[in-house]
Amino acid sequence: MPVMLFACFHVDTQAWKAALAAADPGLEIRVWPDIGDPAEIDYAFVWKQPKGVLDGLPNLKAVFSLGAGVEHVLLDDSLPAHLPLVRMVDPTLVSSMVEFVVMRVLHYHRHMPTYEQQQREGLWKPLSQTLASDRRVAILGLGELGAASARALTGFGFDVLGWSRTAKDIAGIRCFHGPDGLEAMLAQADILVCLLPLTDQTRGILNRRTLSLLPAGAFLINAARGGHLVEDDLIPLLDGGRLAGATLDVFATEPLPTDHPFWTHSAITILPHTAALTHPGTASRIITANIARHRTGKGLVNVVDRAKGY
Ligand SMILES: NC(=O)c1ccc[n+]([C@@H]2O[C@H](COP(=O)([O-])OP(=O)(O)OC[C@H]3O[C@@H](n4cnc5c(N)ncnc54)[C@H](OP(=O)(O)O)[C@@H]3O)[C@@H](O)[C@H]2O)c1
Prior knowledge:
The protein is an alpha/beta fold and about 300 residues long. The protein has 2 domains: about 5-90 and about 280-295, NAD(P)-binding Rossmann-like Domain (Rossmann fold); about 90-270, Rossmann fold (3-Layer(aba) Sandwich). It has helices spanning about 15-25, 70-75, 90-110, 110-120, 145-155, 180-185, 210, 230-240, 280-295; strands at about 5-10, 30, 45, 60-65, 85, 135-140, 160-165, 175, 190-195, 220, 245-250, 270. The strands form 2 sheets. It has a 7-stranded parallel beta sheet with strand order 8-7-6-9-10-11-12, with helices on both faces. Strands 2-1-3-4-5 form a 5-stranded parallel beta sheet, with helices on one face. β6, α5 (about 145-155) and β7 form a beta-alpha-beta unit. α1 crosses α9 and α3 crosses α5. The two termini are about 30 Å apart. The relative contact order is 0.14. NADP nicotinamide-adenine-dinucleotide phosphate binds near residues 67, 195, 202 and 276.
């Protein structure tokens, strides 16, 4: 019977244990720190784990991340260099993110911040409405989440742009890549959505210089990682009129400290890292199916390229 170390923090452990047991009754789950004999652990499932939980597991065969992003695992020195690290790729996670991106893009596209302010003032004042085809929505990252969000936005008729590391050709999306492509795309982005992995190359990519390349009055939606945004740069850009609003789901420090100035800024919408939550039921079936592949000699799927960092 394969044994899995469960070292996911800030999640409902009982719900996960039940979901994993339902997905594969033959999988034994040991919740950290009650791991029993470390030599019996075959697989580890981690999220926001303290550093060192993977130390001293001589027969560990693979590590699974509860999240699509894996920077939290790669920063842990106890992750053995030779082991496969598997990230979460789940269609329900993708559809949740698509919902979130579409919701916030439509919110800005249809002038909701202004109408909400007008309601507070008791003001009846219709605004002219830009056609979706004239609204340029740019997505940073054209992977699982970015490409699906871009496709959904094309369904509303938006002028959709996307940026990736390697060149892409996606029907209906104006594709850019590399550093030059980034600058060219930002200059045309009325609404900018960040769905990049957090790597050495993308850390701090949303900063005063790059965000100043956006057309005046643009909106920012960051649903990727807090480390993408240089937080000190945002409020001056909003107050100076370069940006009209920002939706932030992720922060450098989570939970967002109670005295952080983002909480009270009228142009910032804060969410508690809930744009796309990993669902125990669907994700457990994906993980146990991957373990079954591994145990029957087939390769694991969704293995992270450690050199790229995602
Ligand atoms: N807020 C939430 O609730 C939540 C939930 C899930 C995930 N996330 C975040 O979303 C991120 C993206 O997830 P995913 O599954 O879509 O990842 P993915 O499938 O690995 O896609 C990553 C995309 O980013 C591009 N990229 C990476 N490094 C780049 C660089 N230096 N320059 C330009 N493009 C670069 C990749 O380009 P190539 O295609 O050329 O490789 C790819 O298109 C995760 O890493 C995680 O941080 C947030």
